[in-house]
Amino acid sequence: MHTTRYKIWQWIEDPTGDGSNVQYNVAISTKAKRSNVNPYEISNELLCLRLGLAMNLPVPLGVILEKDGKTYYASLHVAIAGEKLPPATEEDLNAIASDERLTCGIVMFDSWILNEDRCSVNISYFDDTKQTFIFDHGRAFLDKTGRAFLEANKNEICIGEHCLAERIKSLWSFDDWHRTMLSIPEHYIRDSVEMASTLGLPEEDIDFCTQYLIDRRNQLRELFIQHRKKTFPNLDEGLLDPLIGIPVEYQI
Questions:
Q1: DSSP structure string for 18-34
Q2: What are the two backbone dihedrals, phi and then psi, of residue 62, each rounded to the nearest 5 degrees?
Q3: What is the domain partition of the chain in residue ranges?
């Protein structure tokens, strides 16, 4: 898990008395949200949080909150005092894309979870720490049509107008990320889907969604080979073509 500094709303000193330890009661800044349009927003957030953390991607921690009988998802605020908030600027996006390995991991993750909503308002870059954060996955995976969206896009890379797509020059880290993705235990994926089912994902779709995520990660190489050139127009693969006589060690 990435070392992340969260924005603090209030520190309240709680002295222990002997000076051996320093303790505070801390209120961490966050924004709680729910959708009146997509019934799966909160379940999507929890599911994608768990999958993103399992890939060791910089997804801020989130928690489930309740108020007046309604459920909300709250992503912890990653900006410390004095730092700018999203949307990310062109300079921010260029700085993010300069880390080719991380950029590759982000687009692979977004393809796995069928996230067509990665734009400047849900990705951040902080100059002082050189850290990138991705968040707001309520529109990934299930949309208001439920499993129909997953079935319709089974053979698509499905990252929409991704804010990093035109900046990607290399996918040479594909194999590293894919190994990480494939190493996530199937029971962890199922547990994540089952947890999401307590927050809106239909219980009758647990088996379908679990198997869909497992099958899709296995299919990801094929999807990237098939769609990479139209999805990443500035991709530079040199003289190597993964479809013609390249050893199995070749990385996309």
A1: SSS---EEEEEPEEEE-
A2: -135, 160
A3: 8-231
